[in-house]
Specification:
The complex is a heterodimer of chains A (about 475) and B (about 200). By secondary structure, chain A is an alpha/beta fold. In chain A, about 30% of the residues lie in helices and about 15% in strands. A five-stranded parallel sheet of chain A has the order 5-4-3-6-7, sandwiched between helices. A four-stranded parallel sheet of chain A has the order 11-10-9-12. Chain A has a four-stranded parallel sheet with strand order 16-15-17-18, covered by helices on one side. In chain A, helix 2 links the parallel strand 3 and strand 4. In chain A, helix 6 packs parallel to helix 8 and helix 14 packs parallel to helix 17. Chain B has a seven-stranded mixed sheet with strand order 4-3-2-1-5-6-7. In chain B, helix 3 links the parallel strand 2 and strand 3. The radius of gyration of chain B is 18 Å and the shape is globular. At the A-B interface, helix 2, helix 3, helix 5, strand 8 and helix 10 of A face helix 4, helix 6, helix 7 and helix 8 of B.
């Protein structure tokens, strides 16, 4: 009997199904569980209320990132509510014997940055976290997605969650990207084509030359943004680039265990003839540096284009108008030349060393524009260290920028890094929702190159003119 | 028992005909700092509902006394964005037990079901009919019948069926949750875990 050709997604999912409930969800075993201070306290409280314990504490890893300050981390956290959440994470992890990289720990940083850089994230795993950008880890050929707090409690107490198996989508990008086009532009382009809900109900495999040629950090940026078109997650088949990235990292397998793992990981690819519920193909040559003009990540455009009219954009005209009104923009206006008050580089989307290298490549020999406030926030202490060691800090300092300490920062503005009401920010983060970066803030999502071009000119600028 | 049983709900509804209502609007990040699950309803739709000085915005539907009820009716792609279960907690804490839309974001839908809010997905046409019915009579009632999997506009009798898998339906009608189920199969999970390479 011949086997039906399987997708990468099917292989990983099916090998983790402890049970399949008829006309119900699958019980999925979870290999790695990341937790942070904001979405875990109520889950631990739930365990206590039910008299349950943590089933496999060695499979859960904690870091503090969402509400942490990005300056003076050696001092007590000023906001009492944030301090309380950090304390709860510390005591909960201590109580159950869970690894915890809290504030001040040299391994501390954004959960989706520290997992991969320490070799905790590996191909073929199932990975969850109470954070929608868990999709980042799909870059390694893992099934990774965000969950709610009730599900965090499930994983703590049983190492499983109950999930309906999503449908499968493949997005292929052929060809080669042009000068000044980063992985962030590739993903913003895809989302602008599919809309913010275009992949809801699907798990997306990314395929084609563009992703094959992409670095691991670039692949993480792309998989990270999968949720912004509604996808449950994104996944890319592991290859030599993946294996080279993982090898030698602190928690990666070593010796014979490495050889065994590698042999298995090499089988993790979609077989010839496997079918998807939906397929899209795009051409890399069509991708420009991207920027968003509205209040969801699907409202993106090539930086030299004009803001679409409502009919072109699709969806309800009233919702579109509400969005442009919030941004203070008009249909048919160009984005180039629009004033920028704030620039944020960082987050689980673009807070890794390659992002800071790209940023530095533009600001080198230039000066920060007057009137621009820039927040330069590494994704982890390890990234911060790399910024220092590679001389990037010197370039930033000479151009008038200051480096802050790691954390989620202005991506969701739970700490003090808030963009004031009415002000415009070019941000390398993942969401441009109303008020996302502070009440009344107006966010334009873009790549580190576009952010750097805005930081040195004070307006939306095509980075290709500066590189 | 994890939450109240859900069988048949007859209620007036609050209309919110806006697309892509994301979880940052439902509950902004700055209100996620509690370590207990209580009081989130006060900050439901905080920045649409209140001015910066805390005074209510009169044009927002939750501040309009003619609309009330246990059912929230939203536009397409309701609940997109962050995985924060706080969004579902805020909706529940405010008093809603059912959210109706023509399309839900995945994580929000799971979170809602896990805490006892029923997400009812209807066709775009039926959603339009619901909005029209509430517009012509703010006291128009909807009947959500989970055992029958139907939603009906009382005044006109127009009705549509909705999907829910039989496992979740059984849970909702009995007030069980997934943790109860998983606890009962721990031996199977242990056996499975022993074979894991990670």
């Amino acid at each position: 009997m011949s086997q039906i050709p399987a997708t990468l997604f099917d292989k990983v999912w099916d090998s983790h199904a402890v049970r399949k409930i008829e006309d119900g969800p699958d019980v999925l075993f979870i290999d790695r569980h990341f937790i942070h201070e904001v979405t875990s306290p109520v889950a631990f409280l739930g365990l206590e209320n039910r008299g349950l314990s943590v089933m496999f504490p060695e499979k859960t890893f904690a870091t503090a990132d969402h509400n942490t300050p990005t300056i003076n981390q050696h001092l007590p956290v000023q906001d009492p509510l944030s301090a309380n959440q950090l304390k709860a994470l510390e005591s909960n992890t201590a109580k159950y014997g869970i690894s915890h990289w809290g504030l001040g720990n040299p391994r501390n940083g954004i959960v989706h940055v520290v997992g991969p850089e320490n070799g905790i994230t590996l191909p073929g795993m199932t990975i969850v976290c109470g954070d929608s950008h868990t999709s980042t880890h799909g870059a390694f050929g893992a099934i990774a997605f965000g969950i709610g707090t009730s599900e965090v409690e499930m994983v703590l107490s049983s190492q499983c969650i109950m999930q309906q198996k999503p449908k499968k989508m493949r997005i292929t990008v052929t060809g080669t990207t042009g000068k000044g086009i980063t992985p962030k532009d590739v993903t913003l382009y895809i989302i602008s084509q599919l809309t913010a809900a275009g992949a809801t109900g699907y798990f997306v495999e990314y395929a084609g030359e563009v992703f094959e040629q992409m670095s691991m950090e670039g692949r993480m940026t792309v998989c990270n943004m999968s949720i912004e078109m509604g996808a449950r997650g994104g996944i890319i088949a592991p290859d030599e680039t993946t294996f080279a990235y993982i090898k030698g990292r602190e928690k990666a397998p070593q010796g014979a265990a490495w050889d065994n793992a590698l042999a298995y990981w090499k089988t993790l690819k979609t077989e010839e003839g496997a079918t998807f519920d939906k397929e899209y193909t795009f051409n890399a040559a069509d991708i420009e540096p991207m920027i968003t003009y509205g209040t969801n990540p699907g409202m993106g455009m090539g930086i030299t284009q004009r803001i679409p009219v409502a009919q072109e954009a699709g969806g309800s005209a009233a919702s579109y108008e509400k969005s442009l009104q919030y941004m203070g923009f008009q249909e048919q206006e160009p984005m180039l030349g629009k004033k920028v008050d704030y620039v944020f580089i960082g987050s689980c989307t673009n807070g890794r060393i390659e992002d800071f290298r790209a940023f530095a490549s533009v600001v080198k020999g230039r000066k920060k524009a007057d009137g621009v406030t820039a927040w330069i926030v590494p994704g982890s202490h390890i990234v911060e260290q790399q910024i220092r060691e590679e001389g990037i800090l010197d370039i930033l300092t000479a151009a008038g920028f200051e480096l802050r300490q790691p954390g989620c920062s202005a991506c969701l503005a739970m700490n003090d890094d808030k963009v004031p009401a009415g002000k415009y920010a070019v941000s390398t983060s993942n969401r441009n929702f109303e008020g996302r970066q502070g009440p009344g803030s107006r966010t334009m999502l873009a790549s580190p190159l576009v952010a750097a071009a805005a930081a040195v000119t004070g307006v939306v600028t095509d980075p290709r003119e500066l590189i | 028992m994890a939450y109240d049983k859900f069988t048949v709900l007859k209620s007036t509804a609050v209309p919110m005909p806006i697309e892509n209502v994301d979880t940052d609007q439902i509950i902004p990040a700055r209100f996620l700092k509690a370590t207990e699950r209580k009081g989130f309803g006060d900050n439901l739709f905080r920045d649409w509902r209140y001015n910066a000085d805390g005074s209510p915005k009169n044009d927002f539907v939750l501040n309009n006394p003619i609309y009330s009820g246990k059912i929230l009716v939203g536009g397409k792609n309701f609940g997109s964005g962050s995985s924060r279960e706080h969004a579902a907690w805020a909706i529940y804490d405010y008093g809603f037990r059912c959210v109706v839309s023509s399309f839900f974001a995945d994580i929000f839908k799971n979170n809602a079901l896990n805490i006892g809010i029923l997400p009812v997905q209807v066709s775009p046409e039926f959603l339009h009919k619901i909005f029209t019915a509430i517009e012509s009579d703010p006291k128009a009632a909807l009947v959500v019948d989970l055992p029958a999997q139907t939603i009906t506009i009382s005044a006109t009798g127009e009705s549509e069926t909705f999907d829910i898998n039989s496992y979740k339906k059984h849970n909702m009608t009995n007030g069980y949750d997934d943790i109860d189920y998983l606890q009962a199969m721990k031996e199977d999970i242990k056996t499975f875990a022993a074979k894991s390479m990670y």
